[in-house]
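Before going further, it is useful to explain how the protein records used in this thesis are read. An example of such a record is reproduced below.

***
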Amino acid sequence: MSNEPIALDEALTSFDALWSPRVVTHVNDYDVRIAKVEGEHIWHVHQETDEFFLVLDGELTIGLREPAGERTVRLPRGSVFTVPRGTEHRPSAPTGAAILMFEPTGTSSVGDRPTEIPAHIDATTGHPLGT
């Protein structure tokens, strides 16, 4: 972990891979991850943890499968949203976005019970910044 400030704009220019989060820092037992995203992720769930999203650039939508039915939340630049633990969800960004996520270290980007993972999605617990 760096003991120097990290400019998120510069960190985002250090990689091109989509749906492949980079860990920029840690807070206690949590990772702060950034990612570039475009297109659709997969439906997935995190049974043991919430998932926090902050849209740094662009627009993200998150489909949610809740007890009351399916809905979609729209997150323009500067918006935050937390997907509650146990909620099946699918992030997407038709025109691309840059996002920041906050979740426990070791949390998989494809959830606890991944289905078939398409080639455009990196199943990871986060890569170090600069890789």
In short: The radius of gyration is 14 Å. The mean pLDDT is 94.
